[in-house]
Automatic annotation (TrEMBL):
The keyword Phosphoprotein does not apply. Residues 26-374 form the Aminotransferase class I/classII large domain. Gene3D superfamilies: Aspartate Aminotransferase, domain 1, Type I PLP-dependent aspartate aminotransferase-like (Major domain). GO terms for molecular function: kynurenine-oxoglutarate transaminase activity; pyridoxal phosphate binding. It comes from the Bacteria. Belongs to the class-I pyridoxal-phosphate-dependent aminotransferase family. Keywords: Aminotransferase, Pyridoxal phosphate, Transferase. Its cofactor is pyridoxal 5'-phosphate. It comes from Roseivirga pacifica. This is 2-keto-4-methylthiobutyrate aminotransferase apoenzyme. It holds the Pfam family Aminotran_1_2.
């Protein structure tokens, strides 16, 4: 049959994790922690399973969780979204992104995304018959707002930003929010802000959520992830926040897509979120891991590219090999025993910068063992 996504194969994350398993390599490729969820959170899930909370949740999510999300958002960013009309619990952030783009972007319209960008955005846009317009980030992975402004056309429906940024770990500043306000002022352009790593920001920097801008939040869908924050990527728990006019449309898709999300886990997260320390502790924990990994890698020939957020660290390997990054990542997995993600997959043109992405959401022992192998090169 003719493919709707002729240029899409199996994602690099699936490919590299499979290869890591096959060759017994230390897996620093796909982004997931190798340590467990907090026992008291697991206890809460059990508790609600045993108390009979095992049937369909309300379509937008259980009220207690939406209330907890509203309070958390207010506490973090000074804005309390409406519990009934603006918050929807989704199957991971990817369902939030998929349902939002499906509901809001039509065939023939354009969505501006950055280059490099997380691999899922462009195929989701193209499935709508819409066009992804790529705007290159600067060499420091910052957004070039002049180029964004130049990429806007009468067909531009949405601008998609992602901070902290996967794969680079770059974060946006207040000036970026101001630039986005200026570009969208007086237009109908929507913003999708993928903020799944909102709680993983380092060195005393603040996550600049679009919620901080009164102007932006009126035109903005924000997507977020419990999987990233609470080390539970397999639970597939995410959510989105958007103004009522947008949420109404997005829920039309959500209700016929995943419909509702795992009920007992929603109740458990609602309890767990009551204590802000649960998400406030995450940045410090990951900063320690980042610093541990960087220190362990210091004697190596890999050159780190500064990361301000996420649990990813980019490393330039050009002093070690002139292999292309996909070939090098495969070789590293098979011959050295460490799996990482080649970054060319995040570029529209597959550009090879000789840079790999390493996930440091791992036990120190895991990071140490990986660094020892990498330092031997
Ligand atoms: N977000 C994860 C990463 O960047 C991958 C998730 C997936 O495999 N789809 O590594």
């Amino acid at each position: 049959i003719s493919s709707k996504l002729p240029n899409v194969g199996i994602t690099i994350f699936t490919k590299m994790s499979k290869m890591a398993l096959e060759y017994g390599a230390i897996n620093l490729s796909q982004g997931f922690p190798d340590f467990d969820v907090a026992p008291d959170l697991i206890d809460r899930v059990h508790h609600y399973m045993k108390s009979g909370m095992n049937q369909y949740a309300p379509m937008p999510g259980v009220p207690a969780l939406r209330e907890a999300i509203a309070n958390k958002t207010e506490q973090c960013y000074g804005y309390k979204p409406n519990v009934d009309t603006e918050i929807t619990v989704t199957c991971g952030a990817i369902e939030a992104i998929h349902s939002s783009i499906s509901a809001l972007v039509s065939a023939g319209e354009e969505v501006i995304i950055m280059d490099p960008a997380y691999d899922a955005y462009q195929p989701i846009i193209e499935l709508q018959g819409a066009k992804a317009v790529r705007v290159p980030l600067t060499s420091a992975y910052a957004i070039n707002w002049q180029s964004v402004a130049e990429a806007v056309t009468p067909q531009t429906k949405m601008i998609l930003i992602n901070s902290p940024h996967n794969p680079s770990g770059a974060i946006i500043s207040e000036e970026d929010l101001a630039a986005l306000e200026e570009i969208t002022a007086g237009t109908e352009i929507l913003v999708l802000s993928d903020e799944v790593y909102e709680h993983i920001v380092f060195d005393g920097e603040m996550h600049q959520s679009v919620f901080k801008s009164e102007k932006l939040r009126k035109r903005c869908v924000v997507t977020a992830s419990f999987g990233k924050t609470f080390h539970a990527t397999g639970w597939r728990m995410g959510y989105l926040i958007a103004p009522e006019v947008l949420t109404t449309e997005i829920r039309k898709v959500h209700q016929f897509n995943t419909f509702t999300i795992h009920t007992p886990t929603q109740y458990a997260l609602a309890d767990y979120l009551q204590n802000p320390a649960t998400y406030e502790a995450v940045a410090k924990m990951y900063q320690q891991k980042r610093d541990y990994f960087l220190k362990a890698m210091k004697p190596s020939k890999f050159k780190p590219i500064p990361s301000n957020g996420t649990y990813f660290q980019l490393m330039d390997y050009s002093a070690i090999s002139d292999k292309g990054d996909i070939e090098f990542a495969e070789w590293l997995t098979k011959e050295v025993g460490v799996a990482a993600i080649p970054t060319s997959v995040f570029y529209a043109d597959g550009r090879d910068n000789k840079v790999l992405r390493f996930c440091f959401a791992k036990h120190e022992d895991t990071l140490k063992a990986a660094a020892e192998k990498l330092c031997a090169l």
